[in-house]
UniProtKB/TrEMBL annotation:
The keyword Transmembrane applies. Keywords: Membrane, Transmembrane, Transmembrane helix. The chain crosses the membrane at residues 26-45, 51-73, 85-106, 112-134. This is Uncharacterized protein. InterPro entries: MFS_trans_sf. It comes from Streptomyces bingchenggensis (strain BCW-1). The keyword Ligase does not apply.
Length: 147
C-alpha cells in the first residue's frame, strides 16, 4: 500500500517540479488537499486489489503537490517570521498525522479496515475545510498590506 502511495507521490512531484505554476501556493495546497480527501473516500468500499492499487496511486499523487506548496507558503509569512511559520506548519502537519494514525489504528483494530479508511477520508475533508478557512484569512491579510 505504501509503495502505491509513493509511486503516486513520485509521479506527481516530478510533474509539478517540471512546470511553472501561476497559482498561489495556498491554492495549490488546497487543491491537493481536496484531491487527497476525494481519493481516500472510495478506499473504504473497494476490496479488489488492482483497483485498490490504482486508487492508492491517485491518493499518493496528492502528497507531493501538498508538500511542495507547504514549503512555498513560508515565503508568504510576515517579514522575519519565516522560520516560525514553517515550524508551525510542519508541527501542525505532524500532529495531524500522529492523531490520524492513532485514530485509524484504534478504529481498524476494533471495527475493521473499512471504518478506518472512511475515518481517514473524513479527516482529510475536515482538514480541507480548515485550509479553505485559512485561505480566506491569508488573502485578506495579503490585501491589507501586512507583507
Amino acid at each position: 500500500m505504501f509503495a502505491c502511495l509513493a509511486v503516486g507521490g513520485a509521479l506527481a512531484g516530478t510533474a509539478i517540479g517540471t512546470r511553472h505554476r501561476s497559482t498561489a501556493p495556498i491554492t495549490g495546497y488546497l487543491t491537493a488537499f481536496v484531491w487527497l480527501a476525494l481519493a481516500l473516500t472510495p478506499l473504504s468500499i473497494v476490496s479488489a486489489s488492482p483497483l485498490l492499487m490504482v486508487l492508492l496511486v491517485c491518493a499518493g499523487a496528492a502528497f507531493a503537490p501538498m508538500t511542495i506548496c507547504l514549503f512555498e507558503l513560508d515565503a508568504h509569512a510576515p517579514r522575519h517570521t519565516a522560520a516560525a511559520a514553517m515550524m508551525w506548519m510542519v508541527a501542525a502537519e505532524e500532529l495531524g498525522i500522529a492523531a490520524g494514525t492513532v485514530t485509524a489504528g484504534a478504529t481498524a483494530q476494533h471495527t475493521g479496515a473499512w471504518l478506518a479508511l472512511f475515518t481517514a477520508a473524513v479527516g482529510g475533508g475536515l482538514g480541507a475545510l480548515v485550509v479553505v478557512g485559512y485561505r480566506a484569512r491569508l488573502q485578506r491579510e495579503r490585501r491589507g498590506g501586512l507583507w
